[in-house]
Amino acid sequence: MHFVSTRALQGPRSSLAAALNAGLAPDGGLYVPEWLPMLETQGAPVALSAVAAWALTPFMSGSELARQVERLCADAFDFPLPLLPIPSTAASVLELFHGPTAAFKDFGARFLAGALSALRQPSDPPTTVLVATSGDTGGAVAGAFHGLPGFRVVILYPDGLVSARQAHQLAAWGDNIRCYRVAGRFDDCQRLVKGAFADGALRAQLRLASANSISLGRLLPQMSYYAWSALTHYRQSGAPANYIIPTGNLGNALACLLARSIGLPIGEVVLAANANRVLSDFYGGGGYQPHPSLATLANAMDVGDPSNFERMRWLFPPEGLGPALSAGSVDDQQIRDAIRRVHHRHDYVLCPHTACAWVMLERLRAAGDQRHWILAATAHPAKFETVVEPLIGQTLAVPPALATLLDRPAHVEALADDPGALRELLLAG
Ligand SMILES: *Cc1c(COP(=O)(O)O)cnc(C)c1O
């Protein structure tokens, strides 16, 4: 299997290892698989890590990772993945937040770290993993690479725009992890990171790797939980699974569409965005109009120009999607109301991101839809306690891994929204 850039009509083709190490294609495009395999789901495995290896194997063929895919999946996906029916709703919640940093990004980040580490030769110079985060990515990437020989992680996050617990979680690792708060928004952090990757002089002096959701090494493994839950649902009900997915940079939803396109029993996919309307406008027929991101309660989805959009349009042109994909936008008041209502009616606590998915479910029901839906629950609500606790009137227990991190001292430095300042700190070592 080879990978090509979304911007190159004809080649060059890259190996998986080259695509994983490079992050972004040399022409600035995103790597996509040259072709999509088709899996035979009869006889598919049952356990999560076995399903993951089975779904990823065709994408690894010809790569030095092929022989290691089972071990990589077993190491990366070693935490629970509940698929929890919510009684009397014909809906289930796929809880993606039981990894070390309590957000779904642990799946992709842990696999990526394992893969990059497996590809590393002992003689290779140290690798700097440079990552912009709107809150959860940085923590997941830090957790995945923490203590891994040959790697250091540099995290940039928008100052004041992540929750207090998220900020602490980004800055509490130490060792090979460094954390910077940038005076700007997430899109500014992302632009700084893209600028560093495009800086040939810098890259001649420093081995840079990407861990943002543009990285294939995060995107591909995220198919695992869709593959597992769709197979599980199909075995139980005989029907394909429909998903509602909280969406920002489109990495999570794209993984679901990829899983569908390689043969997993997946039906409709609904994207649930916050007040950043770029995708709901686009899939509503309004054209693609990127905008500066708006700050919302679902801050990990505060994205005005989703980084995977180019890949999405390349792999799944909107003309071909029809009703199989739709998108909606949910405002902060609707997020608050949903958290309160779902706690009251169903005794279940949503994080603000997952609340967007719930609002989309309610809109489907109001329009007469009675099908079963699986909601991707992307973060543990205790990560957003300042939003959630006042709404439900009670304190949330912090998951143990997160609690350990919150007990450690945090260390963060300020960084100007300036490519020169970033270059300087990267070269300072
Ligand atoms: C990152 C994140 C999202 C958005 O995922 P994308 O892959 O960027 O669309 C949603 N919810 C939470 C909690 C996140 O951390």
Top keywords for this entry?
429 residues, alpha/beta, 6-stranded mixed sheet, 5-stranded parallel sheet, 15% strand, globular, binds pyridoxal-5'-phosphate
Summarize the structure in words.
This protein has helices at residues 16-22, 48-60, 69-76, 105-119, 136-145, 164-171, 186-198, 200-205, 216-219, 223-237, 251-261, 278-286, 309-315, 318-321, 332-346, 352-366, 385-392, 400-406, 419-427, and strands at 3-5, 31-33, 83-86, 91-95, 127-132, 151-158, 177-182, 207-210, 241-246, 266-273, 325-329, 373-377, 413-415. It is an alpha/beta fold and 429 residues long. The two termini are 36 Å apart. It is built from 19 helices and 13 strands. Helix 2 (48-60) packs across helix 10 (223-237), helix 5 runs parallel beside helix 6 and helix 15 packs across helix 16 (352-366). The strands form 3 sheets. Strands 3-4-12-9-10-11 form a 6-stranded mixed beta sheet. Residues 103, 105, 136, 213, 246-253, 300-301, 353, 378-379 line the site of pyridoxal-5'-phosphate.
Topology:
Elements: E1 3-5, H1 16-22, E2 31-33, H2 48-60, H3 69-76, E3 83-86, E4 91-95, H4 105-119, E5 127-132, H5 136-145, E6 151-158, H6 164-171, E7 177-182, H7 186-198, H8 200-205, E8 207-210, H9 216-219, H10 223-237, E9 241-246, H11 251-261, E10 266-273, H12 278-286, H13 309-315, H14 318-321, E11 325-329, H15 332-346, H16 352-366, E12 373-377, H17 385-392, H18 400-406, E13 413-415, H19 419-427
Parallel strand pairs: 4-12, 5-6, 5-8, 6-7, 7-13, 9-10, 9-12, 10-11
Antiparallel strand pairs: 1-2, 3-4
The structure holds pyridoxal-5'-phosphate.
